[in-house]
Specification:
two-stranded antiparallel ribbon; alpha+beta; single chain; 218 residues; globular; 9 helices
Length: 218
Amino acid sequence: MEAQDDVSLVHRVFLLAYRPERQRLAGGQHMGLALNAAALQGLLDAGFLADEGGRVRVAASRGAVPDGALEADVFARVVASDRSRSWRHWVKKSAAFAVGTVRTELARSRVLRVEKTRVLLVFPYHSVALRQPRMRTAALAGVRDALRATQPASRVPRRQAATTVLVHIAEMNTVMSGGERRAARGRVDELAAGLGPVPDALRKAVRDAKATSSGGGG
């Protein structure tokens, strides 16, 4: 099992979307956006990407390949783009495939056991068993610790702060109820202040998704 400090931001967000008692992912409708945002934040923090006037710029040397399947996919898309684009664009790009990419990666590394089945013998469904539940427990404890105002937000470990901010913005109900999210809003804003452009990009992407689902997105 990976030490918690070594667990990537993408993997933390994915594990927090898992509901153990139901053996399924139940992180809400914005999970793909949250995972893409986690990949972008990880790439930014690792020096693969940089911000240039609100747009994403490749900062890594030619041929560099990030760790993590989703991080590699997102980075490849940015590298292949014919022009500079906003962080929100990349949060939204191919978000529908992000869950499957990370699920497959974690199954191959034996963090998960995934079984394909069908509900009522018709609808495809993935049953997901967590082989290493302590990884999720530790990620959840990290979020709880980050939300406590026992230390300045600037001293919360960066990956722990980013996890907390992203799952809050994505309204991940496996981590916080609606009431808990409202109560944590001020603390989350403090944590987000040191993370750069990704949290705001995720916030805008979630807003776009809500507008589309309600018929306001054209």
